[in-house]
Amino acid sequence: MKRFVWNEESELTAADLKQFANSRSAVMLYYCNGFNMARIAIGDTDPKKDWYIPLVEAQMTWEEDTYREQLGMKRLVPGILHGLPYSSMMNYTLAGEVNPFFKFREEFPNLYLAGEGPMPDQVVHTDE
């Protein structure tokens, strides 16, 4: 997004940026829905505590925090590396964890995700 904004010859408006973000979001949603359909087809679900919605939420948190940092905006997750654990959900998924959400909760019990754990403003970070 920063490169999109950086182009000096373009006269971008707030509406242009909003359209760019909405278009990018639609493409990502398309990929996510395809991924979800494939995992449902092969039976990779957990009826009690499924991991798909937490995966999407974690990726949205990670990406939003990354964009904010690149644009010089206030970070979504305070601290330089505090958003990094949210990217681990994708790593767990790609590594073949049976339930990546369980692994995330086990590794990061003090982080909020999918209705569990404290919200970011309730966590005290001592390494800033």
Structural features, described:
Helix 3 (52-70) packs across helix 4 (84-94) and helix 4 (84-94) packs antiparallel against helix 5. It contains 5 helices and no strands. It is globular and about 50 Å long. It is mostly helical. The relative contact order is 0.11. It has helices spanning 2-6, 14-41, 52-70, 84-94, 100-107. 55% of the residues lie in helices and 0% in strands. Residues 122-128 have low confidence and may be disordered.
The major sheet is characterized as: none
Written as H for each helix and E for each strand, in order along the chain, the element string is HHHHH
Q: Number of helical segments?
A: 5
Return the average pLDDT rounded to an integer: 80
* Assembly form of the protein: single chain
Helix content: 55-70%
* Bulk shape: globular
Report how far apart the termini are: 27 Å
Question: Strand pairing plus helix content: what structural class?
Answer: mainly alpha
Q: Cα-atom Rg, whole angstroms?
A: 17 Å
Binned strand content? under 5%
Q: What's the total number of strands?
A: 0
Unreliable runs, pLDDT <50, ≥5 residues?
122-128
